[in-house]
Amino acid sequence: MVEAHLNGVRNARAAGWRVLERGGAALDAVEEAVVIMENDEIFDAGRGSFLNRDGKVQLDAFIMDGATLRGGGVGCVERIANPVRAARKILSDSPHVYFVAEGAERFAAEHGIPLCRNEDLIIPREVERLREFQARIEPSPDLFAPTISHDTVGAVALDRDGNIAAATSTGGTLNKAPGRLGDSSLIGCGCYADNRSAAASTTGWGEPIMKLVLAKWAADHVASGSVPEWVAAEAINYLKDRVNGHGGMILLDAHGQFGLAHNTPRMAWALKTVKQEETGIQR
Ligand code: ASP
């Protein structure tokens, strides 16, 4: 699956770059990048996500604009193929920051986002994965052990106007309880952006990440003068040391300095600047 993940992040990068190249906003770039990954069944976002205990796909997403601090988030949606699009509509068209479950679906539909059936988001690979997981006599002692993959998607971007943005989208964790919300769509946990500090997106074991409000923690450290490269690594060390968490982070400040780190065996990433283009799955 390694090559498929690398292709997926490369395609997402290309979509984001197309927006930035023509002078578009970082906010649009992260939205487009995340849509590509939501549409790619290899990731745990949109169609192809992990199934919850009831065998349903339940999605969370958040997007944030570092220029204005406006954010939009959806949680536990079951009939939206691209939850980041719904999150973006909330950011742009609503005075609120969050909508969840049916209310989020209703908001999306009222704002021109098509609803789908939950079955349209389910693929056989995930039906089989859930079946195998639930058939285990001994439940895994640690559902979030690093050997169980997390495949949340995220993007951070800086545009020509000097604005940064971040977006994160997920199907959450395998066999999660219906209604369980992870870190990904929680502001400051799985996603954050402020031009004065940094844009961050995280993946991994959601409960520990949210306990540390990790994306905001990292942004604050950048605001205090530390470089994103170090802060990303420190954030992941803090996650492990403080709450025994596993995960990864991408981090970018408004000067274009970036960091990425993970303590899971792998995390696919792709980055592009005017001078540099790199893709990887280990760092
Ligand atoms: N952070 C996500 C969650 O806990 C899972 C992931 O990153 O794959 O919902």
Task: Write a brief structural summary.
The protein is α+β, with helices and mostly antiparallel strands and 283 residues long. It has helices at 2-21, 26-39, 83-93, 101-110, 124-135, 206-211, 214-223, 228-243; strands spanning 59-65, 71-77, 98-100, 153-158, 164-170, 191-193, 199-204, 247-252, 258-262, 269-272, 277-280. The strands form three sheets. A five-stranded mixed beta sheet has the order 3-2-1-5-4. Strands 6-7-8-9 form a four-stranded antiparallel beta sheet, with helices on one face.
Task: Give your account of this protein's structure.
The protein has 283 residues and is an alpha+beta fold. It has eight helices and eleven strands. It has helices spanning 2-21, 26-39, 83-93, 101-110, 124-135, 206-211, 214-223, 228-243, and strands at residues 59-65, 71-77, 98-100, 153-158, 164-170, 191-193, 199-204, 247-252, 258-262, 269-272, 277-280. The protein has a five-stranded mixed beta sheet with strand order 3-2-1-5-4. Strand 6 (191-193) and strand 7 form a beta hairpin. Helix 1 runs antiparallel to helix 2 (26-39). The two termini are 18 Å apart. The model has no long low-confidence stretch (mean pLDDT 95). It binds aspartic acid (ASP). Aspartic acid binds next to strand 7.
